[in-house]
Amino acid sequence: MKSLKITFGLICLAILASNIATMSRWNEARGVYDDVCYLRQAHLFQRFGIGGLNTNAALDDDHYFQGKLKEIAYAEWQEPAGWPCHTPMPGDKFVLQYPPGTGALLALFPEGNQVVPLYVSASLIVSGLALFGIFTAPTLPLTLGAGSFGALAVYIMVNPGKASYSVAPTMAVCAAAGFLTAWWLVKARQRLWPVMLIGLLLGVSVNFRLPNALLAAGYFLFLGIPLVWSRKLITFAQGFGFGVAVLVGMAPTLIAQAVNAGSPIATTYGSADVVAPAFSLVVFGQYLSDMQFGLIALAIGSTAWQLRMGEGGVRQVALVAVGNLLVNLVFFLSHPVFTPYYVVPIAMLTLWSLSFAALMEPVKASEAPPLPHGAAGVGALSR
């Protein structure tokens, strides 16, 4: 089994190396409007520090964003009213629609070379957790599962991860939150700190893309429903602590909305982006023909399997996954717009959580790997 773990580890490292080689050739001016808008947020942070939360188009007095739009041959580069991903607000100002987190991470790296380091950093986190899962797998079937999923998770950092700069940090958060979810429910069910750390991570993910708020839905259901009948202090503390941690994590977005839209709960998205649910067979068909369908099918299948076969904490992880999948799939499948990454975060959070839960579940005696030859006799003598 050791050789199999080494083989899977090398496969993951090979995919990581290939990804990094591919990322190193990426062009930050590939013509995608979202890209230059995230880069504008990064530029504001580098120029004004925390004042970069204010994304008023009037602050482009150094013509940075106009230059970026000219670079991608955008026709209305001179007039803020025609700028992409900017929303009109009272007072004749135009502000970025996106939350500030992705731009803040890009701002950590030198201008002109920001995207590649962001993706490489996120890929290293994902790869590290994938390798950890592989080398801690206690049985042959779990090694096969951890190795196959680890390779998939690393590969996804390029496809469909490249579709939006917000996907890379989201994938890293999903991996870390999945590990902590499994640790909490399998190893530390009565502890408060894992719950709050999960809430903080999921709150932080909202700063990358607002729909990431739905990633916490299953946790709120899992923690909130028991409050109806339970009077245990730890039950209340975990539910309350999780909610507070989520709010703390998403505080930058709430502050940015207050600055740009006039209220922490006011959206910076325009009416064209805030649309009512409308189930469409066309959109559903796009999901069916996309890689996302495979991921969701895998997530649903894994969740159903653990609900049926899992025990204790593993089954509880599956219950969290059920709530999360239901809320997220209802939202995105009824959203009248398709993109190649919308349901990737919930699929990966689910798979990371279930994968680590299976790895952490105590191995039954009948499933444990055989002891090395002679070890049983040595153990008997030591007794």
From TrEMBL:
It comes from the Bacteria. The keyword Signal applies. Residues 1-23 form the signal peptide. The keyword Signal applies. Keywords: Membrane, Signal, Transmembrane, Transmembrane helix. The chain crosses the membrane at residues 142-158, 164-185, 214-230, 239-259, 279-305, 317-335. This is Glycosyltransferase RgtA/B/C/D-like domain-containing protein. The lineage of its organism: Bacteria, Pseudomonadati, Pseudomonadota, Alphaproteobacteria, Hyphomicrobiales.
